[in-house]
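Suppose you are handed a protein chain with no further information: no name, no annotation, nothing but its sequence. What can you learn? This example shows the usual starting point.
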Amino acid sequence: MSPDKKAVGARLREVREAPPYWSRAELARLLRAAADPRDRVNMPHVPSLVTMIKQWESGKWLPNPRYRVLYARVTGLSEDELFGAAREPAAEVVPLLADHTPLNGRPADSGFVESIRESSQALVRLDAVHGADDILNLALRVFHRAHHKLATGAYTAAIERDFMAAAGEAGEVAAWLAYDADEQDVSRHAIQEALLLSRQAGDRDMELFELTHLAMQAVHLHRPGEALRITTSLFDGDLSPRVTALLNIRKGRALAQLGRGGEALDTLGRARAALLDGVTGRDSSWTWWITDSEVLWHTGMAHADLGDWPAAVPLLRESADLRVGFRRAHYNDQVHLLNALAHVGDWREAESVLTEVAGILGEVGSARTTNLLRRLTRRIVNADPPSTVADLARTVHLSLTGEDGGTGLALR
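A reasonable first move is to predict its three-dimensional structure. Written in structure tokens, the prediction is:
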């Protein structure tokens, strides 16, 4: 007898909506995070998974064996409890971890290590122009390939330390791209794996970078206590001026989120002062992006964290102007400036910024920023701005979601 799709769908929805309650987007992120790294590369991203979850819950389709395993991992329920008659015989279940032996190929050598480093550099260049969305899977593939060869011992002994260092760097790049693609669980998993590799390789320089990534992500997720603990623990030792500046940026944002405004702005001021001497011979190669505009942006965001949106606007505007030649960063800056302008009700400038943002859509794939823009355009429409601003915001919202920003109704 064929499985009752409607019954299975109702059960899946019941489980999702039971305490602690997950939205479909939250469940999609959990399903991705529960997958083994090699399998996650080939999984759809969160928006596509949300659509799939809707179809499963409506009874249109049944999850295939891969997703039944993931549902069980996420919910803690057995496949029988979740799917009952829908479950296929164990022999037909597609394993998430296959025998990887044939995939090892020849042992990694110095040429393979160099190819990993070149791939990391190329991905960084692509991200600066195009954003992370379309290149994240490639970055994860590079990292997982290197990580797997290390884990299985498929490398020549002479290159072990250099190989671990290159793999750690590849993991950091993948973690950043996952962060920008708003795959936060994937980012956290990748950076923790990368951190372990860099530490084992004795690459203290990259380890510091990876720890600042964890602090950055903690700030993004509004976990300031975690960000503050990470940064405070790193100030010991002989740090270069630009690394010190980055730590003060992370610490300043955490302090602002904790409501300690005076300390936050003083700390961000020290970060800016540390950059006055320019690049020195002591600065790490990865610190090239720590510029005055970066400090300005985070100082603006700290004012926003403190609820002082009027003070945030000029700082975010200046940062956006300074980074006009860096497409992904400029897109991010403009959307955050638009957010600040909406908070203060400056609709004249907001219309100008929103017009520019609308022109960038489709050129930069940065889900972290685009998700903010999606929420922001809905809020702008509902704030009753001038009709030209509302119409433009509604058009942008529609292009992002297929929904009218004011009514929430899908437009056909």
